[in-house]
Amino acid sequence: MDIENALCDLDHKLSKISSSSKIDSEILLMAALNETRAYLYTHKDKVLDLSQEKILYGFCERRMQKEPIAYILGKKEFWSREFNVSSDTLIPRPESEMLVEEVLKLTSDKRTASILELGTGSGAIAISIGIERPKVSITATDISLKALKKAKQNAKKFNINNIKFQESDWFKELKNQSFDLIISNPPYIKSQDSCLLELQFEPISALISGEDGLDAIRHIANNAKQFLKNNGTILIEHGMDQEMAVNQILKSNQWNKIKCLPDLRGFPRITVAK
């Protein structure tokens, strides 16, 4: 089978499960051949060898089961860099780049600062900040040792040495430490939310947070103050329909200067408080 026919066959099969079947087909074929998109369209008559076909249709079978392409390929772009991911970590989303942007606004590349990230997953957020702000010191925690292993691999990949990765159930293992900033993209999906059907390949513990999706945010709001320096700031990513609930949780815990920032689509996405 040549490249042109392989693309057509993939597109036909993947159109049954994906609204972006053409792009999916290109990405999977590029990965199977280890070539660029331009190569696909300038070498349409290039015939795939048997090993390439085997790899390609292995990818196709996994995608037909609705497995995300990021897990199939083991990588995902975030903050213009490619991070290694696995089913032990959430797939980094573009919305979470807002956390990086806001931290960069609150810090300087000429001054030191200490940052705590709760629930680092693949480490994409912490590492992106660490690259942009080499003078800050970051502690990145996760309850999952497998996720931390992946985060450490990514830190090594980008030669980052200003991040300490630590196993911790939220604040549990953080003794006598204080930070200028605490950031988190915690689980915030309701336990019975229908969207979970589309997220079946991602780690459930990083998605669900109680019946209303707010248990993790409550815990963070209840405990974060003792780990923040005077005038310290907390930044929490949450669902687009949770602005008022998160605001109320923070108010009830005597947080001040609470504001919610919209994402690029205009949806409430990150709440900041002092």
Give a brief outline of the structure.
The protein is 37% helix and 18% strand. It is of the alpha/beta class and 274 residues long.
Fold topology:
Layout (H helix, E strand, L loop, with lengths): L2 H12 L6 H13 L3 H6 L7 H15 L4 H5 L1 E4 L2 E4 L12 H10 L7 E5 L5 H9 L4 E6 L2 H13 L5 E5 L11 E6 L30 H9 L4 E10 L5 H10 L6 E4 L5 E6 L1
Parallel strand pairs: 3-4, 3-6, 4-5, 6-7
Antiparallel strand pairs: 1-2, 7-9, 8-9
Your description of this structure?
The chain is an alpha/beta fold and 274 residues long. The chain has two domains: 3-66, Helicase, Ruva Protein, domain 3 (Orthogonal Bundle), CATH 1.10.8; 77-273, Rossmann fold (3-Layer(aba) Sandwich), CATH 3.40.50. The protein has ten helices and nine strands. It has helices at residues 3-14, 21-33, 37-42, 50-64, 69-73, 97-106, 124-132, 145-157, 215-223, 243-252; strands spanning 75-78, 81-84, 114-118, 137-142, 163-167, 179-184, 228-237, 259-262, 268-273. The protein has a seven-stranded mixed beta sheet with strand order 5-4-3-6-7-9-8, sandwiched between helices. A two-stranded antiparallel sheet has the order 1-2. α9 (215-223) links the parallel β6 and β7. α2 runs antiparallel to α4 (50-64). The model has no long low-confidence stretch (mean pLDDT 96).
Low-confidence sequence ranges: none
Domain module tally: 2
Q: What's the CATH superfamily of the largest domain, by name?
A: Vaccinia Virus protein VP39
Give the biggest sheet. 7 strands, mixed
Give the CA-CA distance, first to last residue. Answer: 60 Å
Q: Compute the average pLDDT.
A: 96
Radius of gyration over C-alpha positions, nearest whole angstrom: 21 Å
CATH topology (fold) name of the largest domain: Rossmann fold
What is the CATH first-level class name of the largest domain? Alpha Beta
Percent of residues in beta strands: 15-25%
Shape: elongated
Strand order of the main beta sheet, please?
Answer: 5-4-3-6-7-9-8
Order of helices and strands: HHHHHEEHEHEHEEHEHEE
How many strand units?
Answer: 9
The CATH architecture designation of the largest domain is 3-Layer(aba) Sandwich
Supply the helix-strand structural class: alpha/beta
Helical region count? Answer: 10
| Helical percentage | 25-40%
